[in-house]
Amino acid sequence: MKTKIVRQFTVMAFLLRAAPAFFFATYQLFLTEHGLNILEISLINSAYMISVFVLEVPTGAFADSYGRRQSIIWGCLILSLSFIGYFFANNFLGFILAEIVGALGSCLISGALEAWVVDALEEEKIDEPLETLFKREEVYKQYGVISGSIAGALIGSINLGIPWLLSGLAMLLAALYARRLKCDAKHKHKNFKFDLTPLRNTITESWHSGRTNPAFLRLAATGTVLAMSVQSLNMQWPILFNQRFDLPIWSLGLIFAGIAAFTALGARFAPLAARKSRHEGHSLAIALLITGVMMILSGQASFVAPALLFFLLHELGRGLFSPLKKAMINRRIDGQNRATMLSLDSMALSAGAFIGLVGGGWLGTQSIALAWTVSGLLLVSLFPLLYKKGI
To answer: In this structure, what CATH number is given to the domain that contains residue 289?
Structure first.
C-alpha cells in the first residue's frame, strides 16, 4: 500500500507540473508578442495572486469537507479550461480572466494533494519520513518541468500559442489519472451534497489553529518572504536571456530544463540537511542564503555565461527550501483540517508573490539587475535570524 500511495502521489506531482510546463519558457514572450510590457505582465500575474489569496482558504475547506480527490479532479478540469482560454485570449482583460480561472483550479489542488498523501499514509499507519517524501515529489515535479518545457519551447519557436493548447490537453489527462487516487476515509461512503456549513466550520477551526500556532506562523512568514523575493526572477528571466543576451526562444526550454535539474538537485539534499542541522531553522537559513546571494550575482553579471550559472545556482537553494518547509509545516498541523491549514500557508505565499510582482515589476522596468539585487538582499537579511533562533 505504501508503494501505491507514494507512486500515485509522485505521478500526480509529475503530471501537475508537466502539463503547464509546455508554456513555462514562453509565457512572457507570448504576452510580449501581444504587445504587453514587463509591468503589464506582472499585473496580469498579480490578478492570479490576488485570486489565489481570496480563494485558497475556501477551496482548502472544500477539500477537507468534501474530499481531497474530488477537489484535485475539479482543479485539473478548471486549469485545463484556463490554459485553453489563454490560447484564445488576445488582450489584457482576456489574459486576466484566464488567470482568475486558473487561480481557482490551482487552489483546488494546492493544499489538497499534499494533505491527501500525508493523511493516506497515516490512515494506513505507514511511517514515511516527510523530508524524503517531499524530496521525491520535488524531483518528479522537476522531471515534469524538463519534459514539458523543452517540448513547449521547441513548439513555441514555431507558434507561441500552441503550448497553451498542449497544456490544456495534458491537464485533462491529469484529471483522468486523479480518479485513481485513494478516496479519503471519511468521504468514502458519502455522496456529494454541497452545504456551506461544513465549509464555514472548517475555515473557523483552521483559522483559530493557524493563528495560535507560532511555529506555523513563522514558517508561513518565511515562505512569504521567499515568494516575494523570487517573483521578479520568475517573471523576468526569459526576457533577460532572450532580449538582453539575445538567446533564441528554443534555448529557453533548455534553460528551464536546467532550472528543473538544479531544483531537483537541491531537493535531494533536503533529508541530509534536516539530519545534519542543529535545529530546523538552520537548514532553512542556508537555503535562503544560497538563493539570495546567487540572485544578486546573476543580476549583476554582464555576460551570459556567469549570469546563467548564478541563475541556475540560485535554484539549488529554492529546491532545498521547499521539501524542508513542507515537512516542517506538516508536522505542526493536524490531519482533520490539513488542506485548509496548507491553504492558509499558500494564501500567505500568494500575498508575498503579489507584493513581489508589483514591486519587482516596477523595479524591473527601471533595471532587471536592480530588481534581482533588492530581492536577493531581502533573503540574505533573513539568514542571521533563522540561523541563530530557528523556527
So the answer is: 1.20.1250.20
